[in-house]
Amino acid sequence: MRGESRPQSGAYPKWLIIFAYLIVYIIWGSTYLAIRFSVETIPPLLSGGIRFLAAGAILLCVRLLQTRDLPTARGWKLAFGASLLPFAVTYGLITTAEIVVPSSIAGLIAAIEPLWFCLIGWLFFDGRKPLLRHYAGIALGFAGICLLIAGDPNVELSFESKYTLWVLLLLLSTLTWVVGAFISANPRIHKDFLTASGMQMLCGGTVMMVSQYALSLFTGNYPQFHAFSMRSAIALGYLVIFGSLAAYSAFLWLMRVEPANRVATHAFVNPIVAVLLGWLLGGEALHKSTLLALPLVVVSVILMIWEKPGKNP
C-alpha cells in the first residue's frame, strides 16, 4: 500500500525465498488439475467454500495458539473486504469455469497476470515503473503459454456456445485476482501475515458458502453430499492443505517481501506444471508444443526477476 513500509527480501535467507517461490510455482500449478477433479461431483461454489473455510479455520487457530495475538474488529473488517476479490470473485469464477473450460486453458489465461501486476502495481500501489525487459518477458511468456495449446484439436472458441463466455470471465478473473492480491498484502489486517491469510480465507470461504446456498435456495437444486466421488473429495483435501494453507500463505508472504513483478512469474510457470500433471495424472495429451514453450517460459522468468548486481529490488 502507498505509504506503508514493507520488509526487504534481503532481511530473509535466500533459501527461504527460493523455497517460497517453489511452493507457489509447483503447488499452484497442480491446483488446476485438482480443481478440475473436485468440481466433477462437487458444486463449484461449495468446493471453494469448503476449501477456504477449512484452510482459514486451521491456519487461524494454529497461529492464534502460537501468538496469542487476537485480530481486531478493524482487522476483520479489512480482511473481509480484502477477501472478496481474490476468493469470492476470482475463485468463484475459476471453479465454475473449469466445469466447461479445460484446466490447461485456464492456466493459459492466467499468463496475462504479470501484465496486470506491472501496470496496476506501478499506477496504484507504489510499484516500480515497468522496464522494457519486463514487457519483453511478458511477451515471451505469453507466447510460450500460447504454444502449449496451439496443437490441441479440442481448443475452439465460438460465440455460439457458453465456452467463450467462460473464457471471457476467466480473463476478468485475472484482473480481480491481481487487484485482490495487492489489497490482501495490506499489513494493517494483522501484523502476522499468516494470521492475516487465515482471516481472509475464512471470510472468503464464508462468502462462497453463503453464495452456494443462496443459489441453491433460488434454484431448488441443493448439493447431494452422497454423490461426491472419492477423487473429488481427495482433490478438495489437497486444495485445502497444499493449495491454500501452503501455497497461498507463501504467496502472501512473497507479496510483502518481494517485488510484484517477480512474484507474478508464477503465472508463467503454473501452466507448465498444470499441463505436465494433466498428462501424467489426468490423461490429457502432451503436445510437442509443450517442448517448444518451455525455453520461452524459462527466458521470460529470467527477464522478469533479473536485477543488476548490487541493485536492490
Automatic annotation (TrEMBL):
Q: Which InterPro entries match?
A: AA-Vitamin_Transporters, EamA_dom, EmrE-like
Q: Name one Pfam family in it.
A: EamA
Which residues does the UniProt record annotate as the domain EamA?
17-149, 165-305
Q: Give a Gene Ontology cellular component term annotated to this protein.
A: membrane
* Record has Nucleotide-binding as a keyword: no
- In which compartments does the protein localize? Membrane
Coarse class of the primary localization is membrane
Q: Which SUPFAM superfamilies match?
A: Multidrug resistance efflux transporter EmrE
Q: Where are the transmembrane segments?
A: 12-33, 45-66, 78-99, 105-125, 132-151, 163-186, 235-255, 267-283, 289-306
Instruction: Could you list this entry's UniProt keywords, alphabetically sorted.
Output: Membrane, Transmembrane, Transmembrane helix
Q: How does it sit in the membrane?
A: Multi-pass membrane protein
* The UniProt record lists the keyword Lyase: no
Q: Which family does it belong to?
A: Belongs to the EamA transporter family.
**Could you identify this protein by its name?**
EamA family transporter
